[in-house]
Amino acid sequence: MLAVKIKPFTKPILIMKNTIHINFAIFLIIANIIYSSASASTDISTVASPLFEGTEGCFLLYDASTNAEIAQFNKAKCATQMAPDSTFKIALSLMAFDAEIIDQKTI
User: What are the catalytic residues (predicted)?
Assistant: First the structure.
């Protein structure tokens, strides 16, 4: 039987990758709920309010093929321009670990 030695930082990377996949799946579910609610002429605020409870942000669902906004939650916040902050930290860290640019000792 072939024994495979797993590097000590591989498990945290796999956990982070799984977390990213789960977050993306949650995003798709939320987008689907909002899209289906908007097409049914339901007020988006009543549908999205429980999903965004305790957070400060906004959500915009845009149809690129028709150049139309499908749904928008917290319109004032969506109109405010902000820097993306930590959006790419996780992805860049995973790429650096994968390319062996950094390891557990360097973080």
Answer: 86
Residue 103 has which token pair?
A: 């390891």
Kindly name the residue from 37, 45, 65, 86 that is annotated as catalytic. 86
Q: Under a CB-based contact definition with an 8 Å cutoff, are residues 59 and 48 in contact?
A: yes
CB environment 72-91: b (16+ within 10 A), e (fewer): bbbeeeeeeeeeeeeeeeee
Q: Where are the domains of the chain?
A: 44-83
Whether 86 is catalytic: yes
User: What is this structure's pTM?
Assistant: 0.35
